[in-house]
Amino acid sequence: MTTRRDFLRIAGAAGLASVAGVARGAAGGPAMTMDLVCGNLGVKADLPTAVALAHKHGFTSLAPDAGELGRLSDGQLGELLGDKKTKGLAWGAAALLVDFRGDDAAFRAGMADLPAFASALQRAGATRVGTWIRPGDERLTYVANFRQHARRLREVAAVLGGHGVRLGLEYVGPKTAWSSMRHPFIHTLAETRDLIAEIGRDDVGLVLDSWHWYTAGETADDLRGLTNRDVVACDLNDAPASVPVDQQRDGVRELPCATGVIDLRAFLKALAAMGYDGPARAEPFNATLRTLPADVAVATAARSMKQAFALIG
After folding, report:
1. Quick one: which H or E segment has residue 32?
2. Domain enclosing residue 85, as ranges
3. Which residue in 184, 169, 176 sits closest to 137, CA to CA?
4. Distances (CA, A) of 51 to 2, 12, 56, 79, 81
């Protein structure tokens, strides 16, 4: 794992400051955004603070917090949106709070709260939500789990779609994750696309993560044929060195370009080729990063993200 000294070295590295925090899509089209998700870095910050941190360190979007947005008065929201616009920031993707993986009571409780969640995002002009698929179950077989996911996520997407919000689904690729459960479930891009097809809504797409793409044994060829509309959000991560791919564990990752284990150049070039214009954010699950002061953690993530975006060329 990268040391604290390495993080500080990356944060202060010269030569990356001039790298733009955006990456152009195909034929110079709309840019994917360098997205700040404070929680992914172990940073606690309300939205005004996150806006300030994003602007200071060269991010071009930030994650919306539907709960916080829903508590703002019209005046407070107007002030926040005005500040965000002045700083040239877009919204990234919010995290779905509905528990669709567990029992029916939990799912129904989440669905009862979903209209307010979606309304808060719509009121603020946010249009993307993402969630992840647990890659196995101790009780449900693959087919039973697939049917339940399709049915429940179709309900979720209908509510979100009614508020102009798209839903992205992320598969979890590591073999150490899906093989640890009695009934392995979706853990590849192809399977996730099958689920999206079964849901049958054009406002449901993918959350692509370089970590899961790598641990699923996928290449740039697997991304060819996808369009901008197919992808709702993107995560950029690297993997610890000297660990075989089938032994990589989901809770131990690295910032983009920290080790070079994952071919981020191929991953990002595929996104650019499809004209992807959504958020790209770091999600390293890195214990060392979480020990850093908030400003240093965000600066470190920004340097790594800019280094990754520079690979597109």
Report:
1. strand 31-36
2. 4-12+19-312
3. 184
4. 27, 22, 9, 12, 10
Residue 124 CB partners (closer than 8 Å, separation 6+): 64, 69, 77, 80, 81, 91
Q: How many CB atoms lie within 10 A of CB 91?
A: 21
CATH of the domain at 219: 3.20.20.150
pLDDT score recorded for residue 194: 98
Asked if residues 245 and 290 have their Cβ atoms less than 8 Å apart, the reply is no
Name the 3-class secondary structure at 266.
Answer: helix
Intervals of the chain under pLDDT 50 = 1-21, 26-27, 29
Give the Å distances, CA to CA, from 247 to 2, 147, 179. 18, 30, 11
pLDDT of 27: 46
What single DSSP character describes residue 291? G
192 to 51, 165, 197: CA distances (angstroms) = 33, 19, 9
pTM: 0.91
Q: What is the pLDDT of residues 239-297, one digit of tens each?
A: 999 999 999 999 999 999 999 999 999 999 999 999 999 999 999 998 889 999 999 99
What is residue 31's predicted lDDT score, i.e. its pLDDT?
86
Number of domains in the chain: 1
Conformation bin of residue 201: beta by default, left when phi > 0, alpha when psi is -120 to 50: beta
